[in-house]
Design a protein that fits this description.
This protein is mostly helical. The chain has one domain (6-320): Farnesyl Diphosphate Synthase. It has helices spanning 6-26, 28-32, 36-47, 57-66, 73-93, 106-127, 132-157, 166-176, 178-192, 196-224, 228-232, 237-244, 249-261, 266-276, 279-303, 310-320. Helix 5 (73-93) packs antiparallel against helix 9, helix 6 runs antiparallel to helix 7 and helix 9 runs antiparallel to helix 10 (196-224). The longest helix has 29 residues, at 196-224. It is globular. The N and C termini lie far apart (50 Å).
Length: 337
């Protein structure tokens, strides 16, 4: 029997998620009076469309716990709203937020992101037919997710390549990407009625999955030719692998110099990309990627759960943990603006 993938599941439930989002947006219209808030958030959602349909992640957790993904549809909407806000704020922090959309100014998008990331998720939680205690626990997870995610993002922004290690980058990834995913997996477990012990296991799974997904995104950034990490001077895990494997102090200084120059030089970005794709660098990267994959699968083995739905989550782990980069790959490099 073929495994149902997370993308298959999304195709089955995407209309339910869209309906939940529309219902959430309608709650803004009576409160604002003019409908301006609803319009701004709607435009932000259209502009900041998520590339991968990971909104089904809480439904997958709920299905593993109970056999039924359906009750977690509202949390899937929360996931979309949270990441829509976070991705826009991330673009803004990187200096890419000034052209949000032809129909949405930067100021409108910034205000809409506040509603999308904080207000609407809480309103969705308050509308759930669950006890006040469960609503309180779910709301607390949203607050914690923002704190942990912001902490990781700030660490990323302040990253210093010279003092960075693979462990320090993992700590940042655990916050900026793992924090939000641990938030939504823990929320789904709480909604399912899982024990405190299982909630914490799902929280840890979210952290590890978030690290895997950040590594996946880092690879996609290089393969796409966007090279936003090189343009922004982001200290990525792949960069620390290259620094750790530098054969001499002089070679290490050369990598640091190219990393600094890559913010303004197309040639430096191309040269740095070639260094990052060296076989020994990618070998270390692949080995560490495999270790995170193994950790995620071990957590799923400990959790167990509904056997009809576990394979979908395992498939998602495999997808996120795929080694996409290859040595000596000709990578397109975007020219300087």
């Amino acid at each position: 029997m073929n495994c149902v993938t997370y993308a298959d599941l999304h195709r089955q439930v995407s209309l339910d998620i869209e309906t939940e989002l529309e219902t959430a947006l309608l709650r803004l219209a009576p409160a604002s009076g003019t409908g301006a808030a609803k319009s701004a958030v709607s435009r932000l959602l259209r502009h900041q469309k998520l590339k991968h349909p990971l909104s089904v992640l809480p439904m997958m957790v709920h299905a593993i716990e109970t056999g039924d993904p359906g009750p977690a549809v509202p949390l899937s909407a929360v996931h979309v709203l949270w990441w829509t806000s976070a991705c826009y704020l991330d673009d803004l922090a990187d200096g890419h937020g000034t052209t949000a959309s032809d129909s949405l100014s930067q100021n409108e998008a910034l205000l809409a992101s506040v509603l999308s990331g904080a207000v609407l998720p809480i309103q969705i939680i308050r509308s759930l037919p669950v006890s006040a205690a469960v609503q309180g626990a779910l709301t607390a997870e949203i607050a914690t997710g923002w704190v942990v995610g912001t902490e990781g993002q700030l660490t990323d922004i302040d990253g210093d390549a010279d003092g960075a290690t693979r462990n320090s980058v993992v700590d940042a990834y655990r916050g900026k990407s793992g924090g939000p995913f641990s938030m939504i997996t823990a929320m789904a477990a709480i909604l399912s009625g899982a024990s405190d012990e299982r909630v914490e296991l799902w929280r840890e799974f979210g952290y590890i999955f978030g690290i895997l997904w950040q590594l996946f995104n880092d690879q996609e950034d290089i393969l796409s030719g966007r090279n936003e990490d090189l343009l922004n001077g982001t200290v990525t895990y792949l960069l620390t692998c290259a620094l750790d494997d530098a054969p001499t102090p002089r070679a290490r200084e050369d990598i640091l110099g190219r990393s600094a120059a890559a913010r303004r030089s197309e040639r430096a970005r191309a040269e740095l990309a070639r260094i990052l794709l060296a076989p020994d660098v990618l070998g270390r990267y692949a080995a560490d990627l495999d270790a995170f994959r193994t950790e995620a699968h071990a957590l799923l083995a400990t959790l167990g759960g509904d056997k009809r739905h576990l394979p979908t989550m395992r498939h998602l782990v495999e997808y996120a943990a795929e080694m996409l980069l290859q040595p000596d790959l000709a990578v397109p490099v975007t020219a300087s603006a």
